[in-house]
Design a protein that fits this description.
The structure is a homotetramer. Chain A is of the alpha+beta class. Chain A is built from three helices and five strands; from the N terminus they run βααββββα. The longest helix of chain A is centred in the N-terminal third of the chain and has 16 residues. Chain A is globular, with a radius of gyration of 16 Å. At the A-D interface, α1 and β2 of A face α1 and β2 of D.
Chain lengths: ~140, ~140, ~140, ~140
């Protein structure tokens, strides 16, 4: 899944963590969080991870026209979450290249792992959706 | 709720009807359709109503930069819908002006009225979000 | 819109406030927050307001079978919000009765009012969806 | 990704096809369909595929307490879809066992493949979420 052009980071720092609450909007008639919504949870965490690295996506887009896009997702669902649960979502860089990076993400409720995913994102020009280099700030921050 | 600049149509034709199915994504942990999703159902019906009038919104935007925006919604929820229900959603013009129009919309399951709403939409320039005239094709079609 | 059985609270305390961030999932192709999602934002704030009053909805449902349902929403959209915006959403009780209450809610970005709504909620038995009295804890808390 | 207990079907019939339209609700501020929503599109197609096999999920749950859950998703995103696009979503059984099955799904716009996924679903008892056998009707239908 990881193309050759991506290389693993030399060190493996502690994963970034983002806390969120489960609301009605996140659940379905099975009484639990609708599985597609873990992709939203993972993205909120990635967005906050980027923000913590100094990269606000709206500002980045307005100043450079660069847009991050998701090109590949894999998620395994291990245990259900319910309304009012407090979840912790992690972000960890597995491999990165000039135009894409692969992140490992997990959703936890206390000591219970609910879902784990691998998300590959690329960087494109808005409008054309043509690939472009990932912003230097991000490449440096994750080197 | 309807500004003076909007006038009622002279005739009241049969409402436009759009049929849709309730899927898992539409439900919440109460076992029924999440109430905010009726706004999505109403919009799907409005989109098909506009398309039936010859107005594809993506084409309209690309050719004129015009964007429809919702400026006011009121919805009353009368009965719940469940997974697999087949709903019929109506669109009827209540009043229209040069830059806005008010629509009455209903969601039915068979003979049961589930939700009814009044939706006011305006027309704006994309980017600036400044008001602009509603496309002539729509004003003529609904005159 | 407010039924006679609801009475205005004797005092008008400062509204409850909940802060949230706009993510990709909240936006649409107009480049702004999809209007139906303000109902989600309002609900997140109501949920946190109830929690601050000691009412976790999942716990309430498991212990009493009581479910809050939304019976009427009205929202006016005044200005668009964009990706990465930080919003403050308020909750203020306008009127309350034995089985329903009406809340006024607003979404702000700094000094800009983006949307304002009136949301009426009722209390029902799960399964049957028959009306039941609002939990005493909430009636006392808002008296 | 496919556990040993699942076996490939002996024949490979033409995939089931479901047509859907892209609405505002499906898009994000990048101007295209929000990637998480392809999981919704895939599920709508699976739901219609099950219905075509005689399995309405709401009826199944009410009569047997059986609930289908998604346990693993993988999606690759190849090209963006936009507002008003008409998509065709396919469902094809890759492998099935007593308690789970793996489906291959694709989303097409005309001759353009937009996204492809592998979705593994299992069958559980509602409430406990414990695994149970897939309904005989489905096992027979896909044998």
């Amino acid at each position: 899944m990881t193309p050759a052009a991506e290389t693993a980071p030399t060190a493996s720092p502690a994963p970034f963590r983002h806390t969120l609450r489960v609301y009605w909007e996140d659940t379905d008639a099975g009484g639990v969080v609708f599985y597609a919504n873990y992709l939203k949870f993972f993205e909120r965490a990635r967005t906050e991870w980027l923000r913590a690295l100094g990269l606000g996506q709206q500002a980045l887009r307005e100043s450079t026209g660069a847009l991050f896009v998701v090109t590949d997702t894999r998620v395994r669902y291990l245990a259900p979450a319910r309304l009012d649960d407090l979840l912790e979502v992690t972000v960890q860089l597995r491999a990165g290249g000039k135009a894409s990076m692969t992140l490992v993400q997990e959703a936890w409720r206390g000591d219970t792992l609910l879902a784990e995913g691998e998300i590959r994102i690329g960087c494109v020009h808005e409008g054309s959706f043509r690939p472009r280099r990932i912003p230097t700030a991000l490449m440096n921050a994750t080197a």
